[in-house]
Amino acid sequence: MGLFAKLREGLTKTRDTLMGRVDTLVKETRKIDEDFYEELEDILLMSDCGMKATTAIMDELRRRVSENKVKDADTAKQMLKDIMIEQMDIPRPPLRWPMVMLVVGVNGAGKTTTIGKLALRFQNIGRRIILCAADTFRAAAADQLTVWAERARVPIVKHAEGADPAAVVYDGIQSAKAQGADLLIVDTAGRLHNKANLMNELNKITRVIRRELPEADIETLMVLDATTGQNGLIQAKQFLDTADLTGIVLTKLDGTAKGGIVFAIANDLQLPVKYVGVGEQIDDLLEFKPAEFVEALLS
Ligand code: GDP
């Protein structure tokens, strides 16, 4: 099955039980009135869009329907799709090399798996990758990452458990320079219970990168489990206070996740979702495209 088909299948639950209601609503609507808007708002909220994104989408829909004197629900649905796509259109600067990708996220979100997937993805477009196991606090994190490095056939730099993460990054950068790598993907600690510590570590790592590889673009991606819905969003907000996030990777969209979370992320965090995970295999990673996503969700 293709990746888009996987995404579509993963979103089946949202599409059938919730977004399917949009179609029923559209079919049954004779007149665009307050009942129509209320029902639509309810559907968006149930799909995990969150209050803020839902309000933004609904306000804009009401405005356009009124401005264009729209009478039929089919046209309103098309407008809804356009608005949803626009709402997710957060600027995505083009990739620049060399790049250091810092990957953060709470345990279990799919951080290790995602790093493996990203390594393969960039390897496949001809880039030289090195993985860097800087989550030295979690038992066996480096071993797990090594398994993914082997799967993606990329080298990995690691130290003993408990080592200084910034020191691992320092070594990673030296390897990257020596091997002429384009991309260093750094697995960083995902503990949230000690925010000050986490912030210090990320700052230390960033300083090492700036000093040792000043020409590198630094991308800080947070891996978020889509099935955790609005709770995941709260986690992400806490991370935002701590790290300078540049994007989100949303995992497990093949599972029971409600797709609306994507709109909540764009609206609440003003961060682009850059990739989505649609399975446990190494090639189950999709570049996120707003129009494709809305198509998978609403048609
Ligand atoms: P980490 O603790 O954040 O490093 O998480 P792992 O990478 O070890 O993944 C935790 C679990 O989530 C594993 O069982 C993975 O197979 C699973 N997982 C990761 N990404 C996805 C995904 O996109 N879809 C599904 N279905 N499972 C995933």
The chain-level structural class is alpha/beta
Proportion in helices: 40-55%
Mean pLDDT: 92
Uncertain ranges: none
Distance between the termini: 19 Å
Count of distinct strands: 8
Bound molecules: guanosine-5'-diphosphate
The dominant shape is elongated
Percent of residues in beta strands: 5-15%
Radius of gyration: 21 Å
Count the DSSP helices: 12
**Biggest sheet, open or closed, and with what strands and sense?**
8 strands, mixed
List the helices and strands and how they pair.
Elements: H1 3-10, H2 12-28, H3 34-46, H4 50-67, H5 73-87, E1 99-104, H6 111-124, E2 129-134, H7 141-152, E3 156-157, H8 165-179, E4 183-188, H9 195-212, E5 217-225, H10 229-242, E6 247-251, H11 261-269, E7 273-277, E8 285-287, H12 290-298
Helix pairs in contact: 1-12, 2-3, 2-5, 3-4, 4-5, 4-11, 5-12, 6-7, 8-9, 10-11
Bound molecules: guanosine-5'-diphosphate.
Residues 105, 107-113, 251-252, 254-255, 277-280, 284 line the site of guanosine-5'-diphosphate (GDP).
Summarize it.
The protein is an alpha/beta fold. It has helices at 3-10, 12-28, 34-46, 50-67, 73-87, 111-124, 141-152, 165-179, 195-212, 229-242, 261-269, 290-298, and strands at residues 99-104, 129-134, 156-157, 183-188, 217-225, 247-251, 273-277, 285-287. The longest helix has 18 residues, at 50-67.
Description of the structure:
This protein is α/β, with parallel strands linked by helices. It contains twelve helices and eight strands. The chain has an eight-stranded mixed β-sheet with strand order 3-2-4-1-5-6-7-8, with helices on both faces. 44% of the residues are buried. The chain binds guanosine-5'-diphosphate. Residues 105, 107-113, 251-252, 254-255, 277-280, 284 line the site of guanosine-5'-diphosphate.
